[in-house]
Specification:
Layout: E1 3-11, H1 19-37, E2 41-43, H2 62-77, E3 82-90, E4 96-104, E5 107-113, E6 137-140, E7 143-149, H3 156-164, E8 169-174, H4 182-197, E9 201-205, E10 207-210, E11 213-216, E12 220-222, E13 228-231, E14 238-247, E15 250-253, H5 264-282, E16 288-291, H6 296-309, E17 314-318, H7 326-339, E18 342-345, H8 349-358, H9 360-363, H10 370-391, E19 394-395, H11 401-406, H12 427-440, H13 446-450, H14 470-482, H15 487-492, H16 497-509, H17 511-515
Parallel strand pairs: 1-2, 2-3, 7-8, 8-9, 16-17, 16-19, 17-18
Antiparallel strand pairs: 1-14, 3-4, 4-5, 6-7, 9-12, 10-11, 12-13, 14-15
């Protein structure tokens, strides 16, 4: 006998801690899936009820009372569709679990405890949860569904358990954050699993920004032969149907919608847009403000902000000084006009002179050095924060990963801000992203991209006066930070010993700056912050 079941991948954007609001999203999505897509089952991401990652909110007992109320509400309001939803649970002994519930006919008919608790990169689940050990398989209309949560699919044991318990198809609930190579890794991992268990898998992923993380969605269904039969879009909420047919002893996923995926710089740009938008909107800021210098970093940051929020939510300020080139002023003004944002120029010459006079006795007999350069940056930072305080708009910092790595930025100066979109974007990628954005519609003046980069804090200054060429710098940073290569290993690859040791010394000495920097969007597999936690005070060297 042939049996048909429609499973909808409920790719939604929850807000961490907004339990009532998240339940509203779940209920609305489930009702729409039932009405518009004739769904039998809707599957939501990992920990949908609380949003992910809730971090130390999980240590607050009051959270679990709200979660229980949310589950009761789902049971009451979703009577004509099966809802598979993720949530945290605390038992009577105080142990906490990462759970998934199968809600059917107004009741939790089955529940599953996540078995593999990741404790690497940005994940810290062993701090909060106790691991489960048992499979969960539920029969519905003759099809047996095995439930797994996120990391479980990256290991063979939970999949094998589900198969041995009779699963015909695996439902995998995920909160898998974006990195530039992550989607390909997910596909390859699931292909290994289906090759091992010979069962189809439905992979449902969260979408949206949460602090420094972006969840890219991209949910998909993979048939038992390892092909993607259904693909949900990336970087947007979506309800995507997956049609299952049971014939004899096997379950087949029918070919369905296949949303196009982003590639290369386009995918990264979408992640940056989503990260900025959700950080600003979810935290209730009316808009953003940034310093527009005429350089490449602020130009790209401005483009991302406008694309994410709209021109009416973005303001830019040029703060010229005696070292600011005329073409920098012209290019900044041109970009502001092109994008249609609020823009003003506030010269800092008089302010700098006032500081210089106030500090004259303290600086007497001392040569000019980085102090005077940093003072310019700090005046600019003060102006931006003053406008932010008055308007309520959040300041966007504009430093890129290359600068963050080696400390080529000023504390309380160009580092000021509530969010740093380019914090995990190497300088060489900044240029590629700028060119990509201009391929959509030219908004960054061409000479901003082509002229040599300069902080313009002293006469004829160029970045490469202090740093290796960015191609070399970014390669050394990648080998040392992302790949954990030793200095000797990097030198053996052909890089100059002096440059390698200088860059690594700067990376190690700049940890105190990074600890005080604004959060920024993680796009690589090894971002500074939760990905890479190094002591500030350390005498370790290699």
């Amino acid at each position: 006998m042939t049996q048909n079941v429609t499973v909808v991948m409920g790719q939604i954007d929850p807000i961490v801690g907004d339990i009532s609001g998240n339940v509203d999203l779940i209920v609305a999505a489930a009702k729409r899936a039932r009405k518009e897509l004739s769904a039998d089952i809707i599957v939501f991401p990992e920990m949908t009820i609380t949003g992910y990652p809730p971090e130390d909110l999980l240590l607050r007992e009051g959270l679990y009372a709200q979660v229980n109320q949310a589950l009761s509400r789902l049971c009451e309001e979703l009577s004509d569709i099966v809802c598979v939803v993720g949530y945290p649970m605390m038992d009577e002994l105080g142990e906490r679990f990462n759970m998934a519930a199968w809600i059917e006919n107004g009741m939790i008919q089955a529940s599953y405890i996540k078995q593999n608790l990741p404790n690497y990169s940005v994940f810290d689940e062993q701090r909060y949860f106790t691991a489960g050990h048992n499979p969960c398989v539920v029969e519905y209309k003759g099809i047996h569904f095995g439930i797994l949560i996120c990391e479980d699919i990256w290991k063979i044991t939970p999949c094998t358990q589900a198969k041995e318990a009779g699963a015909d198809v695996i439902l995998n609930l995920n909160a898998s954050p974006f990195s530039e190579e992550k989607h390909q890794d997910r596909i390859a991992t699931l292909q290994r699993r289906v090759d091992e268990i010979k069962k189809p898998i439905i992979y449902v992923n969260q979408v949206g920004g949460q602090d420094d993380l972006v969840f890219d969605g991209g949910s998909f269904a993979m048939c038992a032969e390892g092909d993607v039969c259904v693909q949900a879009p990336e970087f947007k909420t979506d309800l995507t149907p997956v049609n299952l047919v049971k014939q004899a002893d096997s379950v087949v996923i029918l070919e369905g919608v296949k949303a196009p995926l982003f590639e290369g710089e386009a995918r990264i740009y979408e992640a940056l847009k989503m990260g900025v938008k959700d950080y600003v909107v979810k935290n209730g800021f009316p808009g953003v403000i940034l310093g527009l210098s005429g350089g490449i970093d602020s130009a790209l940051t401005l483009a991302i902000a406008v694309d994410a929020l709209g021109a009416d939510k973005v303001e830019a300020v040029m703060m010229p000084f005696r070292y600011t080139a005329e073409i920098s002023k012209e290019d900044a003004a041109q970009q502001a006009t092109t994008l249609g944002i609020q823009y003003q120029s506030i010269p800092i010459e008089n302010m700098y002179s006032a500081f210089e006079a106030a500090l004259a006795s303290s600086f007497e007999g001392k040569e000019a050095d980085l102090t005077e350069e940093n003072l310019q940056a700090r005046i600019r930072g003060t102006l931006l924060m003053a406008i932010s305080n008055k308007s309520g708009k959040m300041v966007l910092a504009t430093s890129n990963k290359s600068e963050v790595a080696v400390g080529y930025s000023t504390l309380y100066g160009d580092m000021v801000g509530g969010f740093s979109p380019l914090k995990d974007v190497p300088k060489t990628l900044v240029y590629r992203l700028a060119e990509y954005r201009n391929s959509l519609s030219e908004c960054i003046p061409e000479r901003v991209i082509t002229r040599p980069p300069s902080a313009e804090l002293r006469p004829d200054q160029l970045d490469q006066d202090s740093l290796p060429d960015y191609d070399v710098l970014d390669a050394i940073i990648k080998h040392y930070v992302k790949l954990d290569k030793t200095p000797d290993e990097i030198i053996a690859m052909g890089y100059q010993e002096g440059e390698v040791r200088k860059v690594i010394r700067l990376i190690e000495r700049s940890e105190y700056k990074r600890r005080q920097s604004a959060p920024g969007i993680k796009i690589t597999q090894r971002a500074f912050g939760r990905d890479r936690r190094y002591p500030i005070t350390s005498h370790y060297s290699e």
